[in-house]
Fold these 2 entries.
Entry 1:
Amino acid sequence: MEEIGVLKGLVAREVDGLESSIWETSSAIHANPELGMKEYESSKLLCSELEKFGFDVKLGVGGLPTSFMATFDTGVEGPHICYLAEYDALPELGHACGHNIIGSTAVFSGVALSKIGGKLRGRITVLGTPDEEGSGGKIPLIKAGYFRDVDAAIMNHPMNFTAPWMPTVALGELTVKFTGKGAHYSTPHRGTNALDGVLLTLNCLNTLRHGFRNDVIFGYTVDRGGINPSVIPDVATARIAVKSTDVSNLRLVLATVHRCVKGIGSTVRAKVEVTDAPVYEESIPNLTLIEAVSNNFSQLGISFKSPDLMSRSMIYISTDYGNVSHVVPSVSPVVAISSAAVGLHTPEFARAAIDKKNRRTVANITKVMAMTGIDVLMNDRLLENAKKEFNRYAAAGFKDTPLSPVY
């Protein structure tokens, strides 16, 4: 086996040769934005690129119609790395989260490694994970066992800054439905006002805010609240999203919300139904892998923010990548495609995700991911340290991890 530095140079040159394909694939996905679990053309495009380079591709894994798993086996026993691809878009905004870049860079990181596969060992998988913006496609793939034999997971996310890891927070969403009894508003005592239940719930949350830890935030929408002011609403629904920097505290808050809703339903004499969406867990940093990414950034002359500046309290985004980081050692650098003034999920960020001036940036983050893959595949000590670190955090229930805020 060749020296790791030489291998990194080789894979970087392969990415240079693939730069046009990386950008064209990203651009094609951006031009045809598809919502979660409906990313039919995007998933087919990514799979077709992988098939061209000898990957064994399976579409629709884990019972998800637009997921895929593509694996390249070097033929030499060794570690198993997994690149995570996302490719779903946002309603009305299109690729305002840059998932076109995530999908393309994951695929071509794997492709670049496969092109020097004769000098490597182990297996390289690209896992297509749909609907990150909605139901969280990585979660059922975790439950179905697709990470069971993975040694490390790698992805990236476009952002308005560059850093070697992505600090994300835990997110829980629930839908609350109150069912009462309709009546004319002149005789409200003959009915049961379901909307009152929703409004009391939201007011209760605003009151409870003062008893929550200061990292807890929430948002809500009233999705159904009646059809005419002269009619007491018999059905009302609201969606509530709650965030906290760690899933342990989030679950305590969600339990409080459940008790609140149940009590209000009893008070207003309405039937209550609460439906919980899958919880997005916070991302768990792996300092060993973060250091590897940092070194690869430096080797390519890319400046980045220090991990010490990237506590989860600084960024309040959430992603199902966090759930992956709870089951295998994982790393997800972020790469700037816009100025700091441009936020994700905006039309401006959607334009940045297709801006030709970012073509080289997209190629560079593909290099970083491929080079980090070489670190995992070829450096026994690094992988051993990454696993020991992960196992130490897992044994403590992920309650004592580095780069975490203290309350």
Entry 2:
Amino acid sequence: MEALLERVASADAAGRASGHAAVVLIDGPAGAGKSTLADLIVARWPGGAEPTLVRMDDVYPGWGGLHEGSIDLGTELLAPRRAGGPGRWQRYSWTLRRLDEWTIVDGSRPLVVEGCGTLSRANAPLADLRIWLTADDSLRKERALRRDNGGFDAHWDHWQAQFDDYLARETPVAQADVVLDVTDWPLVARDR
């Protein structure tokens, strides 16, 4: 974990040296541990400014929205921030099943985004550090279904099919700077 935090510190310093706040993207399949890793990175952020954390689960426009959520991340949040301004994202209300309010994200603070679809070919160049998580498939499924208390059960196959399409179309592992296998904790980073 310490080696990964050193990479985060380097990304933070490189972003500031380039005149923008650092962006860290964390991608991988459902149940791999993206949310847990994002929480750890935010809690131990090396710079002075606390990063903003955006979870793609709040951005996807429903169970069929992995592709659309990935596009929106780039066009609404990452690209405007890279251009020097604030970015934004629109929350999806899972209870109302519709898009809801917009959230403005200050461009001067570091940003951590976690979720499936973050490392698309369009999004990856807009980040200072790109992390891919992987884990044993059966463990991932167990984690994801347990985490969502039955809410994910009926959608697992459909979501996994979207994710498989995303993998083939966007080759996100090839976009990653760091690949972590989180089958066995603690996290062990390997550089790419």
